Amino acid sequence: MMASSTTRKARIHPQPQSPLSPHLIPADNAPTTSSLQRLLAHAHERYAAHPHSTSREELWRVLARLDDWTEKMVDQGYLQLPPNGAAAASASAIPLHQNRTNSILEAWLLGGCIAYSLGDMPRAIEWNYRILRVDPNYVESMSNLAAALRALHRNPEAEAWWVRAVQLRPTYWDAADHLFSLLCAQHRYADAANVLAYVEQHAVPATGPAAGDLARYLAIIHAKGTLLYALGNHVAAADAFARVLALAAGYADPAFDAPDSKVTLARLMQRARSALASKRGGRLLLTPSEAQDCLADVFDGDLPALRTVADVQRRQSIAQTTANTLLTLAKILQDAIAAGVASGAAGDVASGGGGGSGSDSASPGTNRQASSDGKVANANALVQIAGRIPSAFDVLPLYYISLALHPSPSTANNIGILLASLAPALPMPTEHSLALEYYRYGLSLDSRHPHLYTNLGSLLKDQGRLAHAVAMYERAVACDPNFDIALANLANAVKDQGRVAEAITYYRRAVTANPGFDEATCGLSNALNSVCDWTGRGSRGVEIRGVDTDGNVCLNPTEGWMARILSIIDTQLNSALAWGRGVIRTDYVKIVHEIVLACGYTGMDDPRLTPWIAELIAAQQSGHDEGGKLMELLEVAARRARWRWYNDLYGNGHVVVRNGHKHDDDDKNKSNYHRPQLPDSLPLPAAPTVLPFHTFTIPFTAVQVREICRRTALRVSVTAMRYPWLPKNVYPPPPPPNPYLKIGYLSSDFNNHPLSHLMQSVFGLHRQSIGTEHPVYGICYATTPSDGTTYRQKIEIDANEFVDVSGWSTQAVVERIVQDGIHVLVNLNGFTRGARNEIFACRPAPLSIAFMGFAGSLGAEWSDYILADNVTMPQSAVRHQRSENRDRILRHYNCTNQDSWAYFEDVVFCKHSFFCCDHRQSAPDAKSDSTEADNEMRWQTELQRRETMRADLFPNLAPGTIILANFNQLYKIDPSIFVTWLRILARVPNAVLWLLKFPELGSTNLLSFAERWAGAQVARRVIFTDVAGKDTHLLRSRVPDLFLDTPECNAHTTATDVIWAGTPILTLPRYNHKMCSRIAASVIVSATSATSATAGPGPGPGLPERLIVTSEAQYEERAVELCTAGGVTGELLSLRKQLFLGRSKAAIFDTPRWTRDIEKAYWQMWQRWVTNGGAVTIGEDEDRNLYL
Questions:
Q1: Using CA atoms, how far apart are residues 701 and 712, in angstroms rounded to an integer?
Q2: What's the rounded Cα separation, in Å, for the pair 685 and 224?
Q3: Contact status, residue 731 vs residue 817, Cβ threshold 8 Å
Q4: Contacts (Cβ under 8 Å, ≥6 apart) of 346
């Protein structure tokens, strides 16, 4: 708009732009100006009243009178204009009758404004040019002229005039505002920031502005900071915002005022935190109502900048600008903390709101993390508080002050995000409820705020209130239908509810809204795969078949969403190698000092430091994975500190007495066992978009699989090691076993879950170990509440101790495990739903082992062992050390098989399958094996039961029909193996394929695919049934003639179910580096092995060779061969008999044997740790694996 006021203000006169002077009228001819002044007063009144009480017609009349009157004035000699085309007047040649001239120029300025408001841009331009021909430095006219030019889209000319106006008078805010607006409209944000910087430099006095100008100065500096923030220059933005706070908080208050704005910010943050804490008993977690009253606590009254300002509008402007500044500055610091640069933050902190625009980001349910992408500033570069970088608890008061100055939904949103992220780091899980309160308070300010609904939904989802979470996500999407994060979170939530079709729709919308949203892309591909919707999947890796965008099967590698996922992961893993680069150089002395303290060395010149320094130098010089190597070194040092403490306490297994005192009274000595602290400059690593569990069904290489797991584990490590409640010393070691070893089992699956089905007797069998060679005392820690099933009840009764920790904080669980004196902590989740891996990363027990829950490596230094066998873990997948690696600390680098190894942990190799299966104790038909002693009678009875159940399930099948089956969830099926199954059906006309509606949408897609690819005749022989309960499922698993396994990710629990029922499994271990693709083979081998020489023969040594194949082509041929070799009464029946009669002796079903083996393994692990747990280099203990 044009300038609303035409009152001439004091102006700066630069050097003249033209050598010519205006033609002046002789002084003795000057008439009176009173009539002109009256006309101007009337014109101003009418212009100000437009459009409320002044019509356009009346304005036209006013404009005509001004034109007529000024023309007469010029004609009568009051002012002579330079001829058209002549240069403008010199600023030094001021007319002799200044008052008369000013009146005429004012009339033209007002006329130009009226012409602009009437839409007559040519006349507005003409009148302002008249002024500038007389006075070339008339800034108001320049700005109005530029406005009219911009209205005609003559933007370059408009920009030139506004630039000149700002240069002449930086304090003329209208010109600065219009120029800023023009540049932003052209997306020239850097130029706009430069304009504001110029205005700040030339308009704001070094001593600070006068009270009357403070509001405008704050707005200018804040706008500059907002632009720099949008441009990604967070350090410069934070400096600008700190300058705003220096003026707002330091104005008229020497306690805050400082020449350096960062010093002012540090003072403000330090005083705010201490003031709030001191007046609330150390409590910094305020409710919304308490936060709104915090100004009195921090400033002993009002904001200093407001104390001398009486004007209401200016007070509101100062308060809102300061509030927006605090909001964005806190957000910048919050992002820096989320990137791991500051202590006191834990978990994933979502990107919160910006500044004055009130923009937010939401906390997604797709594990999005703030990443260090060059835009997130290092907090150390932003501010230091008493020599340290800020923590989340320093940021909270900034948000509180912002909320007190100007209640904003964006501020409430960001406080909620921060509080939710702090919950795992604090002793009591009350922060979720407080975060909930802030989200709801924000919604009371703006009931259509999509980010608040989204973050509230994520919080409710974390609390297990899935239906409520979905409702919140739906409201977010209703407020903003293109909000990508809300759409992806809604997709995740409805997918968890089993509404996969809706999830796919929401994922597609998220990807459409933001094609670069990797989390949504990966979520979409995972959802499509889970229901076998393969159109556009393509093919990659070892897959011999894929599906193109038209739904056609293709034999060559084809582009599609599978290739997109692999590309995303490659990019993320390559980027991850830069994590922590430069940290060792920056904090070298501190890092070495931490190692010295943890290892108990005498000082920085201790020769035992040599291998540590060599590793640090090598990591720094390579510039490759520096952060990962540093983290692993510090975790090794922490393990050594724990072992030293044990060795000092117990030495040879008894309490050590030194200087006449028992060393176990060690509270005063615990500082000797220092927990290495992470460098402040080490950021939180970004976790890969693909979760470790999803690597099971994607054709990743060994390197990709292990790095996805490792990067996920590193994030857990950094998060845990920065918990503020974690003691500065390592946790004290448990006393030596007396008489038993204490084993802790941590799981979310002590309910009706496959883990409990498989292991339910193990915990009671541990009770029987007392008095044996390897006595064990088992304590189960359940991280989910009871579902009331018999599985939960049995484990609660049988275990030595059972502790429900489902409502406990991480700190409480960790401290309970330490208190219980656990020697070995067992991870029964790994990277599956409900995992609490941060507990393991805190190292509450000296040793940990993972098995059963997750079929793969955890890639973590906090996971010492993994349970496996020679089938599930071939030697090519285990690290092979180079001889030159001896005396190195890091074991994971420069191995001879660097491209094929997949497991970070040391391995406990079982003699038989590592897989535990309790069916001999708990299956519904288990008792028949003991009551029906005669094998032939058992076999005949089984055949009758099988025939009866077969007829009940499939009454319309013709006699002699071969039933092929797969009972896996459909996400394990890929197009390549499904085409193989269809080819088998085509070659065996009397066969059917029995699958489960797991889920139902997947069955629809598979039938459609089968009909399209193989024709209706074959497709009709693909039969789907509903999923059955556990006992029914076990019993009906006897019905198929042959179980066709999925090679990408095998049947696991299902494999043991089917083998127990006697049904042969045909399996293909597709990868050496993926345990999940080899478990069925391990089950088959173990099912054909008796547990002792006296147990009698098992099912037969040749059976694995018939059922385990090495290629997809062999898979097809072997299936056809088995089906056609005598049909249902041929080899398939012979294999069934071997498996059924052998199950009473098979190792896979001998849970007492498995329990004795694992107890022996626990003791071997412990004894090795006691003997050599302080070893830090490979040369001290070359072969770290154990063999049972």
A1: 17
A2: 31
A3: no
A4: 421, 422, 424, 425, 719, 720, 722, 723
Q: Rounded to an integer, what distance in angstroms lies between the CA atom of residue 49 and that of residue 508?
A: 53
- Alpha helices of 1015-1125 — where are they, by DSSP H? 1016-1019, 1030-1036, 1053-1060, 1079-1087, 1103-1107, 1112-1124
Which one-letter DSSP state was computed for residue 850? E
Q: Which amino acid is at 1051?
A: A
CA separation for the pair 758, 283 (Å, rounded): 47
| Backbone φ, ψ for residue 973 (5° rounding) | -85, 130
Other beta carbons within 10 angstroms of residue 64's beta carbon come to 11
Return the bridge partners of 906, or none. Answer: 865
Determine the residue type at 864: D
1032 to 953, 1029, 1035, 1038: CA distances (angstroms): 12, 5, 5, 11
Strand-pair category, 906-910 with 991-996:
unpaired
| Type of residue found at 612 | W
Cβ 318 vs Cβ 309: under 8 Å: yes
Q: Is 813 helix (H, G, I), strand (E, B) or coil?
A: helix
- The tokens of 197 are what? 């910087």
CA distance 443 to 124: 47
Residue with tokens 């054709």: 699
| Tokens 């920031």 sit on residue | 193
Distance CA 888, CA 880 (A): 14
- Greatest pairwise CA separation for the chain in angstroms: 140
- Residue 767: Cβ within 10 Å count: 14
Q: Are 1012 and 534 in contact (CB under 8 A)?
A: no
Per-residue DSSP letter, 897: T
Q: Which amino acid is at 571?
A: T
The phi and psi torsions of 779 (rounded to 5 degrees) equal: -120, 125
CA 1054/CA 968 separation, integer angstroms: 7
Amino acid letter, residue 851: F
Question: How many CB atoms lie under 10 A from the CB of residue 1098?
Answer: 22
Q: Alpha-carbon distance 279 to 273, whole Å? A: 10
The CA distance from 888 to 886, in Å, is: 5
Distance CA 915, CA 1078 (A): 11
What is the 3-state composition of the chain as percent helix, strand, coil, each rounded to the nearest 5?
Answer: 55, 5, 40
CA 1084 – CA 1064 distance, rounded (Å):
9
Angle at 99 between CA 94 and CA 100, to 5 degrees: 95
**pTM of the predicted model over 0.85:** no
Gap between the Cα atoms of 904 and 284, Å rounded: 41
Closest CA to 298 of 277, 317, 281: 277
Sign of CA dihedral 327, 332, 335, 337: negative
**Average pLDDT per block of 10 residues along the chain, 1188 residues long:** 35 31 33 63 73 73 79 69 54 48 81 87 90 90 94 94 93 88 90 88 72 84 89 84 84 53 77 84 86 88 86 92 92 73 32 39 34 42 60 88 94 92 60 85 96 95 91 97 97 94 97 95 95 93 87 88 94 93 92 95 92 92 91 95 94 54 59 93 89 95 95 95 93 95 97 95 95 96 96 96 94 97 98 95 97 95 95 90 65 77 93 93 81 81 94 94 97 96 97 95 96 96 95 94 97 96 97 96 91 48 90 96 87 94 92 96 95 66 73
Q: Does a cis peptide bond (omega within 30 degrees of 0) precede residue 1047? A: no
CA distances from 974 to 528, 696, 953 (A): 11, 12, 27
Per-residue exposure over 614-632, b if at least 16 CB sit within 10 Å of its own CB, e if not: ebbebbbeeeebbbbbbbb
CB 363 within 8 A of CB 455: yes
Give every CB contact of residue 594 below 8 A, 6+ residues apart in sequence. Answer: 634, 637, 674, 676, 677
Phi first, then psi, for residue 1023 (nearest 5°) are -115, 135
CB 140 within 8 A of CB 28: no
